[in-house]
Amino acid sequence: MNFDKKNLSDQELITLYKDLLLPRMIEEKMLVLLRQGKISKWFSGIGQEAIAVGVTAALQQDEWIFPMHRNLGVFTGRKMPLSKLFKQWQGNKDGYSKGRERSFHFGSKEHYVCGMISHLGPQLAIADGVSLAYKLKHQNKVSVAFTGEGGTSEGDFHEALNVAAVWDLPVIFIIENNGYGLSTPVSEQFRCFSLADKAKGYGMEGIRIDGNNILEVYDTIKGVREYCINNQKPYLIECMTFRMRGHEEASGVKYVPPELFTLWEKKDPIKNYEAYLLNEGILTEQSVTNIRNEIKEHIEAELVIGNQSAPIHPDTAEEVNDLYAVKTTDDRPPTTDTAIEIRNKKVGRFAKMTTDNRQPTTEAQSVVHGPSSMVTEKRFVDAISDALKQSMQLHPNLILMGQDIAAYGGAFKITEGFVQQFGKERVRNTPICESAIVGAALGLSLEGYKAIMEMQFADFVTVGFNQIINNLAKIHYRWGQNADVVIRMPTGGGVGAGPFHSQSNEAWFVHTPGLKVVYPSTPEDSKGLLIAAINDPNPVLYFEHKALYRSISGLVPDDYYETEIGKARTVDEGDDITIITYGAGVHWAMDYSAKHSNISIEILDLRTLLPLDYDAIKKAVLKTGKVLILHEDTLVGGIGGEIAAWISENCFAHLDAPVMRCASLDTPIPFNIELEKNFMAYSRLEETIERLLNY
Ligand SMILES: Cc1ncc(C[n+]2csc(CCOP(=O)(O)OP(=O)(O)O)c2C)c(N)n1
After folding, report:
1. Quick check: pTM over 0.70?
2. Dihedral angle sign, alpha carbons of residues 465, 471, 476, 478
3. In this predicted model, what pLDDT tens digit does every residue of 657-684 receive, in sequence order?
4. Which atom of ligand 1 is nearest the CA belonging to 178?
């Protein structure tokens, strides 16, 4: 192995040696503790340390890193206290995730380390979002994201690199090519000769280096970092290395030819570097022994502290409370002159985003204070646009992203004119990379931005599903990082658009703790709820029914206002039956009611599906004792089942009939307008209500 120290001082070379030795010695200790049953799982990075250590040493301390499961050197490189790391691995409350996460699946905002999820690839796009934030703030920073060579086969790898390239983001993507996925050798994973060659396909630079040579890694990252910052470009680095132990300790290494271990043992990053330092006279045998003893003592001392955690006593209230980030004054736009001043000072760091998108304080004031109490007749679609526009004016840190939302104005023209008003940096056309854009939206949160992503159609969320379900929804509960993201979901049928442009998929998200799901039915609510969603620091799925866009109008306050998330609305009072519904269902219920003046119907519009307004549901049930839940979504597994179960558990004594559901057919939604009508819940509303009335 050739080491070239370039202009590094002896002290710097020794520091790198210590940084390299620390994770190795921690791991050796962990393997002992694992055998003693004191920690539950261990993913070894033995043999690969030079990559994590070299990369971390070459970065500024406040540049975000996105490590994977073999990158202990990132955590030690960021000087995370060992005692707390031990607590983390033992699942203790005072670790980094309050006992909620295992092994390396945690992050620390304080150390600018973003925790991975098991799914590997999704990590990469979050780095795009962080680097977008750096770019918008004109900061000289890069983010660095790791992946194993196995993870490069995931679509997320492709999407993250493509978005970084198209948006000229200063991200360094590191591939640790250690020869194997879990057990699958590279020959069964891909056909290209070098993964670094893939860079060309994305229009970025790429290089393959010896990942076991700490000086090569360090020097390469230093140089690439400068390149990324100066040229505002991403870079792909493939680091060749080898995994000296099994995927995790229980899985063994039977599938690896033994000669490979002999070969790579000779290339061990620590032994080789140590030999080099000894040979150069920078270290002596004695100083090596001293350093090892020092580290050993340090580890033992930290372990003593790490072992002092009290046992966890589960507190359900705390578990549930930690699901959502608490709204702070930073999440809301200012409402007084002083507050505006404070806010402008606080967001000073955002003020450089562009020159053309900055809104003068006076404009922000007029949006907040407005000509009070004025209302204008608006279509549903215009109320949404209104909410977006006012929010863009008031939140200088709000970024819109979506396919064709800039010059084209979006598939439904909701952001028409926005790019002229707020600039291309804040109104961003995206490639067709739903997963990466959701990931980038989360990355923006890490750097204090708010993001709204427009799904062109709610149906397409399936290709961004993983990021929403596993990253956005869980990140706050896992390690306290919030996801300040709204995903706009043009949803629903009745427009003759067939199975892939008409689905109702809100129930998928209602089943995911950590998300909020909002679904307005009127123009007034659509504005107020969207503003509330934007001001909420948590991930909100905002469903907007396409069939209502231009068919429904109503009076909408001109002022900037919030409609509280989690509160249902009584649409009509009645005594005979109660219809609990949302979205298009509200209009179906009103329509039915108007045509049947002999039936007195209580109509409740849920408005928010997660969290549900149980008080309002109970009140509405108690009014009549005969309840119908109506939704456009299909029946099985729909929200109706959940609400019906809750009512039977909590209001049974007040019921005069079984809770009934009226939902769409359990088939895909068909294209032909007659078939679609037949599919829709509305076609069975009359008969279901009759059954309920006659019970
Ligand atoms: C989406 C997904 N599929 C499968 C797995 C199971 N799994 C965990 S690690 C791993 C191998 C990863 O290989 P690589 O990316 O090369 O990283 P390495 O473990 O070799 O460092 C697999 C298949 C997973 N975690 N996520």
Report:
1. yes
2. positive
3. 999 999 999 999 999 999 999 999 999 9
4. 20
